[in-house]
Amino acid sequence: MTGLKREGDPVRRLEALRGTTPPRPHDARAIAALAANPGCARRALMDGAGIDKDAAARHLGFPAPFGQSPFAITRGNMFEALVKADGCAELLRMLRELLDLPVEEVAYHDVENVGAHLRHTHTRSLLDHAARSTTAAEPVSAATFYDHPLLSLSIAGHTAYLEPDLVAFQLGGRFHVVEVKSFSVIDGQADPAAVAAAARQAAVYVLAMRTTLEELGHDPGLVSHDVVLVCPENFANRPVATLVDVRKQLAVLRRQLTRMTTLDRLLDALPDDLTFDLRPDDDGRPTRPVAELADALSRTTARYAPDCLSTCDMCFFCRDEARQEGASDLLGRQVRDELGGVASVAEALGLADGTRTPAEGQEEIARLLRNAERLRRECLT
Amino acid sequence: MTDSPEQVIQNVLADLPRHRGVVVDSPPGAGKSTLVVRAAAHIAATGEPLMIVAQTNEQVDDLVVRISDKHPHLRVGRLSAGGYTPPPRLLELAGVRVATRVQDLNDPDIVIATADKWAWISERVWPWAIVDEAYQMRSDKLLRIAGLFERALFVGDPGQLDPFSIVDGDRWSGLSWDPLQSAVSVLLRHNPDLPVHRLPVSWRLPASAAPVVSQAFYPFTGFRSGTGPGDRRLELTTGGMGTVHDRALEEAARSGWALLELPNRHTVRTDGEAVQAVAMLAERLLQRGAVASSEQGERPVTADRIAVGAAHRDQVAAIRAAGLPPEITVDTANRLQGREYDVTIVLHPLSGRRDATAFHLESGRLCVLASRHRHACVVVARAGIAELLDAHPSAEPVQLGVPVKFPDGWEANQAVLEHLARHRV
Amino acid sequence: MSLLTSLARLRALDEGIAQPVATVRHCHLSRRPMVFIPLKLSGEAAAPLAAMLGTDRDDPRLLVVAQPRNRDLRFAWAAELAGVLLPYVEALTVDTETVERKNADPYERAVDAPQLVVPNQGGVAFTALLGRSTRFRRADGPYPVPGSVPLLGRWLTYFAERAAYPGSSIMLAATEELGRHWASGQSSLEDANLAALMSWITTGPSDEAEDPLVWPPAGPATDPGFDAEVLAPAIESGSAERVAEALRTQLEPTWRLVWQAIDLLAALPEGASVAQRWEQDRGSFSGMAAHVAEGAPPQARRDGAVAAAARLARMERAQAAYDVQRAYDDPMVMAEYRLTGEAFAGEVVETDPENTEGEGRSRKLRPLVVVKTDDPVRLPQGTSLGTPQRRGQGAVLVAADEGLITVKITKGMGRGKTAAPGSVPEVGERVCYTSLTDDFQGSATLPEAEATPWTHGGPPRGYTPDDEDAQEEWS
Amino acid sequence: MGDRLDELERRIDELRAAVRRAMRARDGGTARSLRADLRSAERAWDALVSGEHPQAKQEPPRLVTVREQVHQGLRLLGATAQPRLIVAVSDAFFGGTLRSDRLTSLRRDEERSFRSSPFGRPYYLCAALTDRLSAARGLLTLSTWPLERRVVGPLSPRVDFLNCAIAVAKQRSDDERAVRLLARMARNIPGATDSGLAPPDPARVVAAARAELAVHVERDTRDRAELARRAAVQLGDTARLFGAATLSTITKEKAK
After folding, report:
1. Could you tell me the sign of the dihedral formed by the alpha carbons of C122, C158, C34, C130, in that order?
2. Interface pTM (ipTM) of the complex?
3. pTM for the whole structure
């Protein structure tokens, strides 16, 4: 880091990248997704600049293949309502069973009772109040549940507002993030990918709460790294709670947030006038010529992998680019890794056929590929 | 701060009659075998029969020899499978008898066999057992033999590689008796009140290595080295020629670590340049007449005191094919577990890779490779591992009910890499 | 995946058509497979929406839950499913053969077994969940269901468990089997899309395969757009016909694809060990049928300590055998081992069929064979070898030098003084040797479940399915 | 008829595809008009298949108004409750035809009616009041209840739930729906049920709920009394029933 001058610079550059398009605020899911492909410079820049990747992909004609069924959405909402119904009656039962929550701990506080614009400040003051109660000489009353809290976390200079499902307090004097998900836990097990996604998301809330407490001068350790995951059990609607340790997810998250503040190197490599602006009109419809935007994006290096197809809004655009380039990335990280330094399909096949002379450092992969090609031919004839 | 090693051993022995099971965690070279031998003699002295379980035939033979050496009056039975030929050093021992059936052992004080062999024994119960390398033992093996003993001492290194299977074990994940978990994990999940002791001092790792390995792989428990800085010396008796290989050896001799960094490039796994570098280092180490001095005296670092470690079998094959003297051990991390050398040369698991997989990042793998040496460890790696770690996507699935394992492979790799960077040539 | 498969994928990408990675078929194909395409309601764990199934490609049965949130309709659907699946399964239990065994009583084995074919792994997982959600139900008590439903649950559970068993063909996922025989020019992740994989194999890649309007997802999840625009209004309308028709449009394309996949696989010659594995499948099927007939309880929710260890041992054994058998059956699979130096193939250039070892009575015939090979052999001296050309034989690597490998045949030569004709390869013959051999050590016995040791939690509490199981609502 | 049916099916397929394409392109306007076409095609298809003109779905005869059903439910419960619970009670004890989604606009309608002619009705369904004296989200009460019952402090949701459970248990109905409702409530009260399947014993539920109530009631009563006092002092008639606007409450708070 060389002095103050550079500090403002990247922020300005990132804003120029976004141009007149309004920034897309990060939610917990988006923050959690930062760890999905940290090596991708294109994604890092777009996220850093707060660009709406979904809108960009759509405008480019490569809408992402993500969508949620209305049935799933309804089910999710219904389940969350059930968990919180009647003063969190179900949740109380589970926490009493799982964590020995004392019977007198039932106080419920709905943060949303204040106006929307005050939710965040109100959340802070409630957390502050609750945290004080742990050290106060006089007993200070703190609620057991804080419903609809609104937290904030600074992401590359932008403030992201985050809405955990619920925060529980008074489980051994520590805050626990409660994450309500509608995927099922069947015989004690759930879809590991879904649990991992929930854990990453919950880690964002834990971090946001710890940051808030630290800002307020409290011990961030008051927020437990164990989050309470609430899911339907087996095939019924009855909720079940499981503790999930998110320490690893927290470590990953911290790493990724630190990375986001070090985009200078990536920005330095870009032409000064480069922008990913969609130039929205008054109705918010993008007006930028598609070819121009595609061209601007192609100035940044993507690190496409098939895994992007389930995590990144830009995936179809980048896959198409990889196809045009004939990149072996298309076939997956493992294939790409196996091919050593050979990045293109044509190059690899040329080496296998012997029609291409291996460049320096390619002798070994060339030998392996030629051998593999010989064996394939032998088997196919 | 912590108890002395002797105090820990005393505590362990005192705990034995008080609990059904006692676990002792032993970081690399912390005197696990010494403890096993001590405990064996201690139990044998009570006059009650003892069974000892180890994981491989070499480990069994090793223990037989050690016990017999230290306590020649004890009668030791070495139980083996049909195809086993005992090494000559075993046959020379007076109190040792080798057989394939328990009844042919003539009722010795101690019976030792591999876990696989024990699984075939039945209809007898020993009052005592010692299970060695218990963290590398899969729990289904323990299930097969746990009926043979009443009480047991479990000894092992929690930082090394976890057991594995060729089949997908997801259907058992989260179960307290998941057969793919280690014997100790399953034991402790069912018996959380059993005492767990830790040996606090590594006698193997030099003062230059213990803190690094301790922080990277044993972040919560930790250990220290039994020797101080300067107690171990590695000297190269002939002069160097200033090549990178020589400089790497010199750095290793001086500081206990060296990182021979090759140019950043994505390569095939059997990266020829890296394999050559490894072979050259081994060759030069011998040529330069390395001499190791330690509390055990001064001795030349002969080929049998050198090991080369790698992650994959094809890498091992490629290194072997590079023409090393056959006395030098070349093997995968898996097979180097529990072994000890003066100098190790390691092909970094992430060298030349573009993407790290869970296999490459498994902390136990790097831990084994970085903790086999008494004097120095030379690592060969291509530049770019830091970037690779930085770009690593973190999306590991999470199974409910499975305790999170520490250290995290990524963090451990990062910690070791940071340390190695200070010894780069 | 090996470099060989990677190369095939590269080639497929370049040529625009999938490339073979097997020369024979490694799964058994039934004469009457039951194709089963289940769909589930989005957002629910195991709420069935519809299934298309049958053994006749021209006559699929469509079963639909017109109101997926109605519990009674779901169980009625499960009963309908049982009405199709159970007769198919039960008919096959009738014809059996008696199998003699060494050191054990002979047993009865079905001459044929059922085969369930689903489009993808998701289909297998959903079958397992359906099985789990139905097998503990009761026909009596507070939440009764049709009597066939719990029985269906047990069979569905059995099918799904076999699908996880290495080398079994009782339940196949089309994408998995296709992927074992062809390499597409896309990633293995994308291969999970049946339409995409099929288009790579038959006509070449097509973006239409990813367009849910052209190729609806092969299930069990439906396309969110379809849910919103078609299914939700149809359900809302209360018209069972409309729901059924809507779901038919989502199932029919997949139905055709699965049958087409079966045709593709059927066109490959069957691997030599396939019949042997199918024999084990038949044995397992008869075991399950006997279990059901004896009135044994349904499969436990999860394996106990002893059951888990036993299953793991069986599966590891099966996996090892499957890997070896595929390599021995198929030169293309063996080529993977040749590439890594664990096998080599070449021409016999010299033999010594009369070579013997030992003296007098212990004198044994140990013929020597020298093979010239281009393969990069990475096997140390003394490695035990096997050969697909003479499966009963065992050999040992004696020397390897500059592409000339000397092999000594040590097993399967019989007791004769001279080699039986054909037992030693002739000069000029092409042979292959590999360190991959199927001499798996049997595993030691496990304790009885009641004798589970203290290290593993002690004897399990006896499990009897109770009303709680039957009560679990289907939300 | 077959031809017509085929043609309709083709048309329906085309329209569905077009709608989904429009949705993917986020072209809401086109999607809406296509959807309208689709609905009419589907109706025509239904008509053709069932051989008759579809009748407008018959509403079940509703003798009791939604408003009155909610009133009934709340009276039975005797405490502030969420629409969900009111629906379940109405269903279990009054053979009600309520659906939760019908209750969403209810409170606003009541407030409108009150504003146009204050106290024109014998009772109003109104909102519970939060500690900020604003309307609590998703909690209904009766205007005829004392203010102390209509305000909610931190412990009130639990206290109200336990009181509701007692009220439900006291009904002692054998109706399957009532038993299920009680079972669902009872399992969330410590000591109210065994783990078994048998229907809960109402007397035991009452006893268990009272036992827990005893823990909370003192503080809750104090909190509510204080809130009620503030509400009586600070709020006008309308706000006392339907809650103060949030912002004004805040301003008052700050002014203090």
Report:
1. negative
2. 0.90
3. 0.92
